[in-house]
Amino acid sequence: MTKISMNVNGKAVSRDVPDETLLSDYLREHLRLTGTHVGCDTSQCGACVVHVNGRAVKSCSALAASLEGAEVTTIEGIAQNGELHPMQQAFTDHHGLQCGFCTPGMIMTGVDMVNRYKAEGRDLTTDAIRHELEGNICRCTGYHNIVRAVEDAAAKM
Amino acid sequence: MSTGIGARVKRKEDKRFITGKGKYTDDVRSENQAYAAFVRSPHAHAKIKGIDKSAALAMEGVIDVLDGHQLTGDGIGNIICGWAITSKDGSAMNMGAWSALATEKVRYVGDAAAVVIAETQALARIAAEAVEVDYEVLPAVSNAKKALADGAPEIHDNAPGNLIYDWEIGEEAATDAALSEAAHVTEMEITNNRLSPNPMEPRSAVATYDAAEEHYTLYTTSQNPHVARLVLSAFYQVAPEHKLRVIAPDVGGGFGSKIYIYPEEITCLWASMKTNRSVKWTSDRSEAFITDAHGRDHISTAKMGFDADGRITGFKVDTIANFGAYMSLFSSAVPTYLYATLLSGQYDIQNIHCNVRAVYTNTVPVDAYRGAGRPEACYLIERMMETAAREMGKDPSELRRANFVREFPHQTPVIMAYDAGDFDANLDQAREAADVAGFPARKEEAAKRGKLRGLGYSSYIEACGIAPSAAVGSLGAGVGLWESAEVRVNPVGTIEILTGSHSHGQGHETTFAQIVAERFSIPIENVSIVHGDTDKVQFGMGTYGSRSGAVGMSAIVKAMDKVEAKVRKIAAHVLEASEDDIVIEGGEVKVKGTDKAMGWHEVGLSAYTAHNLPPDMEPGLKESAFYDPANFTFPAGAYICEVEVDPETGVTEIVRFTASDDFGTIINPMIVEGQVHGGIAQGIGQAMLEQVVYDDDGQLITGSYMDYTMPRAADLPFYDVHHASTICPNNPLGMKGCGEAGAIGSPPAVINAITDAIGSNTLAMPATPHAVWSALQAAQ
Questions:
Q1: Among B15, B18, B657, which would you mutate to test the A interface (most chain A Cβ atoms within 10 Å of its Cβ)?
Q2: Which fold is adopted by the domain A2-77?
Q3: Residue B358, strand partner residues
Q4: According to the model, what pLDDT value does residue B1 have?
Q5: pTM surpassing 0.90?
Q6: CATH architecture, domain defined by A86-156
Q7: Do B19 and A79 count as a contact with CB atoms less than 8 A apart?
């Protein structure tokens, strides 16, 4: 067992966990933040994406023990003062979700992609959005409305 | 803004999903939770000679290791297929025994021989590795044709030659005669590729036994929790129905694969009783590939005959359907009553005959996957039509028009009676939206860039709203396929709708609320939908086959009719008017042509205070209804796909995808379009990317997302979706269903487009770059 401390969604947290604990398990099982989902075991589906120190990370592929002291943001942490994040708002506005299981990862990936493109001054075209979604699989929507949602949120972020 | 029928209302359920507050089965954790891990066969076919549990049992934190002999010894029954199909010689189908934990033999890679219950999930999985099963490996077969061949390994003792049934529909002699006299006969061998459904949420179960009450609670990823409870009780003998509560909370997609009651749920319930612990199991993706029912996997030969004018004179089909190692819950119905009954397509065909042989193989069980039989039928017909048009030098859309059914009702020779439709309208709308007239110029322009451009059609029809209970009963179904609903008006006028339908992405919390808010003229926020819990909803048949609108909503309408009748009586009594003069509008219940009115909430309050009700009226305002459909519904449409192929690499891009659907009445176009998008994406996945591959020994080659190609965003286009609707005459809202159309209609449109582009008709799904390139090379 190892004591792992992090800052998750702006709060300092600390838990004793088995050494092999993945970040996804640390969040889901130890902090009971169950908005982060696990949809595969080969790091392909992206349902588990969270932000670690400001970058999108697949939490199913990161050991919690390697993230001592990290700043972690999950889907539960992006709405501010009861206001939905523009990416969250865009997903509901454009019907970018159906069953909702991939949605937290999609939103976290979407936020990260818009932030990166803005920081680099690059144009986030719909082709670029589709390319950036390579690591996030949705089985319900056919991606049409997800791409539209990210495009809309990018204009508002 | 209107929230009624036809309004693009944003989804009420979204907030919890976009904020991470959805509650899926794996999010449920009981006090003192224990975890299950299954000991799964690495062999496709083997005898179990013995199981040594000692090493696993000795591990700290292992609670128990349980096997199939213990399970059957406790009286847990075999898993059954609930639809009896009779072979053409009158014999019953050969259903092999399927125990939730195997006893004598394992029959596919992944078949479970034992289960470990331990304090943590990680420990359970490690201990499962330590259980030693002594297998005697037997020869295996994974391909359905090979399983029928002489000398193939036999999988079940009571299914000689691995044959489950040999079934037929239609008139063979008349069809043969029509084909022999035809001016032109198109003949094809067509494979419908095997798929893995892959809802993004893996299956999961949390089973808790309460010894004091002798009562079980099961949280599970189910599309039909009441059916699960019925089957778990009546057939698997886990617990009587009143001692078993099944809850399907938020469910992350199903596509058919979460209809069935699998070995894992049964085992977790039983293990919970055995260990007196709450037992939880959550599949990982690799486990899902070897346990979730697969879909499709048909091999067919087909002949379609035409007269000199291009009218179809006869259609003859011979199909072999791979059922995998065991018969899953609805497996038998898929290649028969959900497939062969749709072989008339949108066309007036007088002579049809189809023979279907269902076959055991050493693979994962196969059952309904989005569309279930209808995609296989549609693919066959629409590939045949396009090919026939090319062979006869006719325009493919004109050949279709020459054969369209135009008078309704239309009785096909394969049971179905189409009730409404306008196939020309869908084809016209799709052709215009797809700018078919401009295609030659686009083809020419693409050629200048070295690309091959092709255009393909698909005019699909399907049967939804399954189904009239007496009809399906006469065809062998073990259940009735009605739906139930309860409308509870609270004393303050808010409304709860309890429904037997289950939403796992379809947006019922929004669309069901829309029809209620409109009917009673109240804010949509004042309506909530309750589903997915057998303790709350009395009964229901669940959601599959695009039935929640046509059947589930019809039950709600029927219950609302009863509520309205009582509201009218109460208001007429209180307002001293005639019932016939009562109108419900603007949040009030009024007397027509006067200023006399009660607020909607006042009617509710009157019903519950019961201070001033009509004589003999019971207090309260709550009504329930069961709705049994009068017919199937028949969604139909025309899809047009346009592709560009790079002849150097075979890489194919869908440059345009146009849909014109006839779904009858549409409650929420936003949600309906979303269903079409998702269906088309799955159809394109089948056509171009997805394929479950087994080697000859029954080892699964495509066992993860590293090997099985799920459609990604960059693989897919934006979809151009339109509607040209006729109203379904057989249900109160005129709905037909929209959940499966995209997956049914799109694969032939894609393959017809690619084969048009490359000028070769020899192309099987999935049309990977290698397959397309190879077909192109062979054609040159």
A1: B18
A2: Ubiquitin-like (UB roll) (3.10.20)
A3: B165, B321
A4: 65
A5: yes
A6: Orthogonal Bundle (1.10)
A7: yes
